[in-house]
Amino acid sequence: MSNVIGIPVAAPHASTTNSAGRVMAIVMAALAPATLFGFWLYGWPAIYLWLVTVAAATLGEAFCLRLMGRQASPVLFDGSAALTGWLLALSLPPWAPWWIGAFGGLFATVLGKQVFGGLGQNLFNPAMVARVALLISFPVQMTAWIAPLPIFSAAAPGPIDGLLILLKGLPPAFDAVASASLLGFAKTEMSRGIDLLQAMAHAPLQAWYGSRPGSLGETAAWLIAGGGVALMFLRIISWHIPLAMLAGIALPAAILHAVDPARYLDATTHLLSGGAMLGAFFIATDYVTSPNTPRGQLIFGAGCGLLTWIIRTWAGYPEGVAFAVLLMNSLTPIIDSYVKPRIYGRDRKGVALEPGK
Fold it and tell me: What confidence score (pLDDT) does residue 1 get?
């Protein structure tokens, strides 16, 4: 109900200073330290790929808005399209060719978001929809990792060489620094227990500060986790999904590693490898595609974590965060239908309370 000048007069009301644009800006600020560190580790090709992916996501959203006859500027300025491209770029190999970023950015906003109705209507996380589509369609390009070459090192490509790598692909001169990611190596070496244990000896430490092959989102777990904690401190996200997802990964990993350490990776390596931290703090916590209640978020996060560990351990792909998040996204409506908040003004049995009780 509202009065004649459009000001709501019926109670109760809740107000907030948050807007979509403000939330997106804070999330991007939290991602910035890890992203900049990734740029430093992987140099100009990674910077160009990030720019292409973010630009493609933004252009895809603008194109869809024009098709629907809507004004593009106000919607684009909320930052949701740029954040979608940003998250997708963090999940890509740093030296992937330009068309991977362009196709992925367009796929994320056009097919992963706008076909559902735009911001707030999508069932699945757009960035993860695009990553899975890219991984299934272009497995070679999506698993071509490069060892870190800090941007100021003598071996690192300069701005022009970086642009040529983006446009033409990895030249033969850099084949020597190509390498498997930690999870990919563990997947292929699982049957060689002694070699696996030796290879994993320094893996958690490398994963913590970021000096090993992987995507931009795998560069430094401490920076990703720090950004996530900042989001919790600013009350942009709650602790339920991140904690439940990390626990869902760590608990089965710790149990199986205790049973057979030569075959199963330990919990620390699982938590600090791949997209676990990025998924727990920045992807699974998406407002639109995750449950509304704290209990529902705990169930959702635990499911994401457990599915991630199962896919990593027994499925054909070394990384499972994207698949796990999408599977749990599909269950979000079911979780919301069974795990509901307490109704305002009613007791635990659903009986209306009398005034003053």
Answer: 41
Whether residues 330 and 202 share a domain: the answer is yes
Question: How far is the CA of 325 from the CAs of 114, 132, 280, 328, in angstroms?
Answer: 19, 11, 10, 5
| Residue pair 200/186 in contact by the 8 Å Cβ criterion | yes
pLDDT at 196 over 80: no
Q: What is the mean pLDDT of residues 336-352?
A: 67
Give me 8's structure tokens: 């709501």
217, 24 in Cβ contact below 8 A? no
Confidence (pLDDT) at 193:
47
Question: What distance in Å separates the CA atoms of residue 220 and residue 35, rounded to the nearest whole number?
Answer: 9
Indicate whether 75 belongs to any domain.
yes
- 237 is in which domain, residue-wise? 197-213+220-338
Write out pLDDT tens, residues 127-171. Answer: 999 999 999 999 988 988 888 888 888 778 889 988 998 988 777
Asked if residue 190 belongs to a domain, the reply is: no
Regarding whether 241 and 114 lie in a shared domain, the answer is no
Same structural domain for residues 145 and 233?
A: no
- pLDDT for res 81: 92
Give the per-residue pLDDT at 347: 52
Q: How big is the CA angle at 220 (ends 216 and 224), to the nearest 5 degrees? A: 85
Residues 175, 30 share a domain? yes
3-class state of residue 202 by DSSP:
coil
174 has a pLDDT exceeding 70: no
Work out whether the CA dihedral 94, 139, 168, 127 comes out positive or negative.
Answer: negative
User: Do 252 and 155 fall within a single domain?
Assistant: no
Q: Are 90 and 130 in contact (CB under 8 A)?
A: no
- Mean per-residue pLDDT, 293-319: 93
Residue 84 structure tokens: 């979608």
Does residue 4 fall inside a structural domain?
no
**Helix-helix angle 44-67:159-168, to 10 degrees:** 60
Segment 294-311 mean pLDDT: 96
Domain count for the chain: 2
